[in-house]
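Customer escalation, tier 2.

The customer says the design service returned an amino acid string that "doesn't look like it belongs to this structure." They asked us to rerun it and document both sides in this ticket. The original structure tokens are below, unchanged.
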């Protein structure tokens, strides 16, 4: 009787499947790729594919939204921010640093491919009820929502809906991510520090307006 693979070997196989699926989805799109195609590219059997991913839709989610089994939360958003214990003067550079960190992450070739696949097939699959895109997007931005709530509690931002405030902060990052994917020579892409500084300034004008 063959020995069962070690957990580390299973994780390696899962990563290889995700790598192969990323390239195939980027080249042919969700509907142009089958589970058998990914299995062939990975060098594993179809049954092994289904051991790791119950369906092609689940594999798609793991590729473009993030492998929740390994990463714990979706990677669509800017990530979990570091704690902030400063004052009002320290807030702008803190938020700028957060933006720059996210843009560094989004600029990686792998992330650019993931986002292009997400844009091309993600909304359609969500409308067809094949993936729960809204829930995953909410989980992805939850750390920023929590941050905005804490900043409001500290009196550093005016009291408002933390989720809407978080969306106001994240929206320019998503636009920048789209530009990185489709127009990498755009001036905002080539000058990320200027972009981050401008966006944080505009964000705080709205988020601190009428702050008592």
């Amino acid at each position: 009787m063959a020995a069962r693979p070690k957990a580390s070997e299973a994780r390696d196989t899962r990563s290889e499947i995700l790598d192969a699926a990323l390239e195939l989805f980027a080249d042919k799109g969700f509907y142009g790729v089958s589970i058998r195609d990914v299995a062939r590219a990975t060098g594993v059997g179809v049954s092994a594919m289904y051991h790791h991913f119950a369906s092609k839709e689940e594999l798609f989610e793991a590729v473009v939204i993030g492998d929740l089994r390994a990463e714990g939360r979706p990677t669509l958003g800017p990530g979990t921010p570091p704690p902030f214990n400063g004052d009002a003067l320290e807030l702008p550079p803190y938020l700028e640093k957060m933006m720059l960190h996210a843009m560094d992450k989004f600029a990686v070739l792998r992330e650019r491919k993931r986002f292009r696949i997400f844009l091309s097939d993600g909304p359609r699959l969500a409308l067809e009820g094949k993936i729960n895109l809204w829930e995953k997007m909410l989980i992805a931005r939850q750390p920023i929502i929590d941050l905005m709530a804490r900043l409001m509690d500290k009196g550093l931002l005016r009291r408002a809906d933390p989720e809407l405030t978080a969306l106001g902060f994240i929206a320019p990052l998503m636009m920048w991510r789209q530009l990185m994917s489709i127009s990498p020579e755009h001036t905002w892409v080539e000058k990320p520090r200027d972009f981050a500084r401008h966006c944080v300034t505009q964000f705080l004008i709205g988020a601190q307006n009428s702050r008592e």
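Tier 2 assessment: The sequence is consistent with the input. The mean pLDDT is 87. The chain has eleven helices and no strands. Sent an explanation to the customer and offered a walkthrough call.
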